[in-house]
Amino acid sequence: MLEIKNLHVKLEEEDKVILKGVDLKIGPGEVHAIMGPNGSGKSTLSYVLAGRDGYEVTEGSAMLEGQELLEMEPEERAAAGLFLAFQYPVEIPGVGNMTFLRTAVNAQRKARGEDEVSAAEFLKLVREKAKTLKIDAEMLKRPVNVGFSGGEKKRNEILQMAMLEPRMCILDETDSGLDVDAMKLVSDGVNALRDAGRSFLVITHYQRLLDHIKPDVVHIMAAGRIIKTGGPELALEVETNGYADILSEVG
Amino acid sequence: MALPKVKEDALTARLAALPALAGKGWLGAARAEAQGRLAAMGLPSRRDEYWRYTDPASLVAAEAVPAADFHPGDEAPAFDAIDRLKLVFVDGVFDPAQSDDLALAGVEIERLAQAGAADIHWAQGLYGVLEARGQTPVQRPLAALNSAHATDGLLIRVTGRAARPIALIYAHESKTSDAMLHHCVKVEAGAELTLLESGPGAARFTKVLEVEVAEGAQFHHIRVQGRDHERRAATHVFARLGARAEFRSFTLTANGRLTRNEAVLELAGPDARAHVAGAAVGDGDFHHDDTVFVTHAAAACESRQVFKKVLMNGATGVFQGKILVKPGAQKTDGYQISQSLLLDEDSQFLAKPELEIYADDVKCSHGSTSGAIDETALFYLQSRGVPRKAAQGLLVLAFLAEAIQEIADETIADDIRGRLEGWLARHASKGSA
Ligand SMILES: Nc1ncnc2c1ncn2[C@@H]1O[C@H](COP(=O)(O)OP(=O)(O)O)[C@@H](O)[C@H]1O
Ligand SMILES: [Mg+2]
């Protein structure tokens, strides 16, 4: 599904290197987790994959189902099946959540040469999916993320993901700022989307999200590199011992 | 006091280019008075404080700068889908052949050109009267020039609830047309009217609209200032509101080499409400100036000024807005916001918001901002699959939303949004192509 090779990234405006050769291969239907201390480059990796400005790729590649992501516009990456649930979802005053969702769904359909969804069909679909995420009609009408609580913003990200049905989902600290109930809602939302043709990259700080969304592979990232890869037990190890052991072990 | 020599000369030159008007009837008297006001003021120049941000040279010159007539291609004319009474002016002259009959239930409509010769007329109490009141504390010589020399326009008296909106459509056929129109609208107590205006008018267009909104009456005004780029225009709306009266005016301006829209509103009776809003989009050598003066002269009135401008490729936007709260106008609720969205670094927004308050129990706020498009929001939209240009369009419309919300009629608001979307799709900024 997604294959990242030797990815090096620096900031465009400064001589600061953030990613120093990341390799990662995620097969169809797999769930991978990336854990790592603050500042290790996890969000940067997700932004670079999604195509945010301000970063310069100095080396490496990132292929999504055989297509080079790094040469595409962000909207083309989305249409190709990539989705990033933001660590900090963006507020857009003046744009209604519903309008936003419909514009996004139809834009992707158009890019793929499909027909737009009818207003009625769309409404039915949104209501259904919103309900399982406990997103009420009021939240759908309000401007995108404006005045939403932390938990509401994260649920809204998952709603977008559910509506857009991407093939490769990246979740950047979707668990941060969530209480136990919200975490359950969000994880259920994610798990409902798991299938053999859809892959996930779950970035998290804590093991607890991985109790709900069970990963196949766990990677530890530090200082811009993936320093260790293992099974779900690796997450438990981090939970009990922190990152210090792994960091010193790798040296 | 005599005018300075330069001003004297400029006025003489301008007047020499205008035909002398017969001084008959009530209109003759009103014109003569306006001519007197004009002679005392002279024409505006760049040196006048009120014209610091907008050079009036092309508005006051003896000759209008030629402007080719404009064909908007496939875009439907404004308000086409709305059931309305259509009244057409071509290069500033009423055209009965293209217009509906001057008949509408609840409304009396006459042409200024015909009604002016009578000895007495209801419009005597309005024509040039609100304009004259609006000359203090700030002079508006172009409005006095208009009162003195306008040859056409409509006198509209609304006695009930107008059966349909009245749509004034201004077409432009001659390259050098220099049009002056003067309309008076009197909305009698409890009556209601929606007035629509659209079209470029002329190569140079000077317009005055005087509106009296009596007790408990409603006046809604929606205006679309065409898409032709070469036009120059100075327009004035003077309105006086009685107790519990409602006045709402919204203007969409797309393109235009030079547009100065002045609104002078006086809340004269308690509990009146005046809203004036504008959305302007300009590309390149576009200069748009909104100059607003709201006077709260009675208690418990509400006023709102909402002006938004989207500027690209070196366009200039100007806002001068004032709220004056007179002694005794307690419980005033005044709001003013002027904002610009600069799509590149070549464009500029000049704003002068002012408050002058002589009552102690009032709520007044004003704000003015100027900023670029939110790149983070743009990326967020793109990451959801919305192409950059469409995402930019969505954000621009969101920026303009507060102004468009001032349009009470949803069908018209949708039409305005559609026009803006079309315009944005046709104009891409250098900064974010
Ligand atoms: N746009 C930016 N400007 C300056 N520094 C940045 C920027 N993006 C990331 N960084 C820096 O890069 C490092 C990695 O950040 P980030 O990817 O957010 O880490 P993580 O998500 O793992 O906490 C940090 O040191 C951070 O300060
Ligand atoms: Mg992060």
Task: Describe the overall structure.
The complex is a heterodimer of chains A (251) and B (433). Chain A is α/β, with parallel strands linked by helices and 251 residues long. Helices cover 39% and strands 28% of the residues of chain A. In chain A, the strands form three sheets. A six-stranded mixed β-sheet of chain A has the order 6-9-10-3-11-12, sandwiched between helices. In chain A, α4 packs across α6. With 433 residues, chain B is α/β, with parallel strands linked by helices. Chain B has one domain. Chain B contains nine helices and 20 strands. The longest helix of chain B is centred in the first third of the chain and has 17 residues. Chain B starts with a helix and ends in a 7-residue tail after the last helix. The structure holds adenosine-5'-diphosphate and magnesium ion. Magnesium ion binds next to α1 of chain A. Adenosine-5'-diphosphate binds next to α1 of chain A.
List keywords for this structure.
heterodimer; A: 251 residues; alpha/beta; Rossmann fold; six-stranded mixed β-sheet; four-stranded antiparallel β-sheet; 10 helices; B: alpha/beta; ten-stranded mixed β-sheet; 9 helices; globular; binds magnesium ion
Summarize the structure.
Chain A has 251 residues and is α/β, with parallel strands linked by helices.
Topology:
The complex is a heterodimer of chains A (251) and B (433).
Chain A: E1 2-11, E2 17-26, E3 31-35, H1 42-50, E4 55-64, E5 67-68, H2 74-79, E6 82-85, E7 92-96, H3 97-111, H4 119-132, H5 137-141, E8 143-144, H6 150-164, E9 168-172, H7 180-193, E10 199-203, H8 208-212, E11 217-222, E12 225-230, H9 233-241, H10 244-250
Parallel strand pairs in A: 3-10, 3-11, 6-9, 9-10
Antiparallel strand pairs in A: 1-2, 1-4, 4-5, 7-8, 11-12
Helix pairs in contact in A: 4-6, 6-7
Chain B: H1 5-16, H2 25-41, H3 57-60, E1 85-90, E2 93-94, E3 103-104, E4 107-111, H4 112-115, H5 129-133, H6 141-149, E5 154-158, E6 166-171, E7 178-187, E8 192-198, E9 204-213, E10 218-225, E11 232-241, E12 246-254, E13 258-267, E14 273-283, E15 287-296, E16 302-312, E17 316-325, E18 333-342, E19 348-357, E20 363-371, H7 375-383, H8 388-404, H9 410-426
Helix pairs in contact in B: 2-6, 7-8, 8-9
Magnesium ion (MG) binds next to helix 1 of chain A.
